[in-house]
Amino acid sequence: MNQIVSLIITLLFLVIIVCLTVTHRLRDRYAFLWLITAIAGVVAALCIPLLNRFALWIGIYYMPTFVFMMTILFILGLLVRQTMSLSNQSDRMKTLTQELAVMEKKMLELQQAVEGREKH
């Protein structure tokens, strides 16, 4: 029964990710990550007995603990990736703002030079 419920939930998640990707509400670079995650969830739901054996093999006697541990590690990985992306975006925003300020200064200087020529 647990396997059927897990399979239904992960398939529903996969369908949601596909719908978000098709409607372009989820960008391609992130969609690939989420599609792989959803597919891994479906495979994990199909292989619950194997996950039980693997958890026992590595010394975890309660398989949901293993699943929660893997989920937390995955979420931490996503947070690191998002933080890196946010840092990159922040650096880019700073550079673009500086470039815009330089361009505005040059444009103002050109306008002043043109106005100065028109007066003479």
UniProtKB/TrEMBL annotation:
Membrane-spanning intervals of the chain: 6-23, 30-51, 57-80
InterPro entries documented for this protein: DUF2304 (IPR019277)
Domain of life, per lineage: Bacteria
Coiled-coil positions: 86-113
A Pfam family annotated for this UniProt entry: DUF2304
Alphabetic keyword roster: Coiled coil, Membrane, Transmembrane, Transmembrane helix
Protein name, entry field: DUF2304 domain-containing protein
Organism placement in taxonomy: Bacteria, Bacillati, Bacillota, Bacilli, Bacillales
